[in-house]
Design goal:
- By secondary structure, the protein is mainly alpha-helical.
- The protein has two domains: 1-131, no CATH class; 133-250, no CATH class.
- 53% of the residues lie in helices and 0% in strands.
- The protein has helices at 2-7, 12-24, 39-43, 53-59, 65-68, 71-99, 104-126, 147-152, 159-164, 181-191, 203-213, 217-223, 235-239.
- The longest helix has 29 residues, at 71-99.
- It is globular.
- The two termini are 42 Å apart.
- Bound molecules: zinc ion (ZN) (2 copies).
- One zinc ion binds at residues 19, 23, 162, 166.
Amino acid sequence: MLFQTTAFQNDIYDWARNHRVHHKFMDTNADPHSSKRGFFFSHIGWLLVRKHPDVKTKGKTLDISDLEQDAIVMWQHKYYWRIMPFLTFIIPTLIPYLCWNESLRTSFFLTVVRYIASVNFMWLVNSAAHIWGMRPYDKTISPTENLPVTIVTLGEAFHNYHHAFPWDYKAAELGDYVLNLSTAFIDMFAKIGWAYDLKTATKEIITKRARRLGDGSRCARDDEVWGWDDEEMSTEDKSLVKIINRKWKC
Ligand SMILES: [Zn+2]
Ligand SMILES: [Zn+2]
């Protein structure tokens, strides 16, 4: 909760509610940052104008009772505007100033730069990762797998996967943590028992979905082994090859 406050992306209660509305009514007028309204709107414009009435009326149909029952979420919601300035701006400005004699002006400037950079990186998930990239799991929806945005958001732009399987805590089909430090962070807390009931999709479900609705990029990626499938390679030859640790095949 404290880390989330440092990000100043509004409190957990508002963030989670907006996010659920985005998933449920994606790319309609009820989506708070609908990508159908263009890059600028889905990036930052949605925060500069009044919400479309549909966001409010349809948003009311969502169940957010779990958030309301969470004491920590509601505490942050209540005191957000009192604790956020300290965690986002005042403490980060004072640390370099007091600890290694940075000037107050430079410390504050860096704090503001950090904030502008971090929110813009996150907004790219709503804008760029709803426009550019492959759609290996579902080509009928706007979200994409966007590598540059994934890098700057520590793993939050495997976005086609995330919209196809929104209940998967990893928000990605992963082999390792290299591009997804967010998952490593949750797993760390799972080890000490603070994160639990984590759900993740099996290879079988993912493959089924990718075959049924994907744009084919998932198949191309994993089957690309140079020399395999050459014309001169007969089926008989292939049958003599031992494949170890075989992955799914399209
Ligand atoms: Zn989401
Ligand atoms: Zn999205």
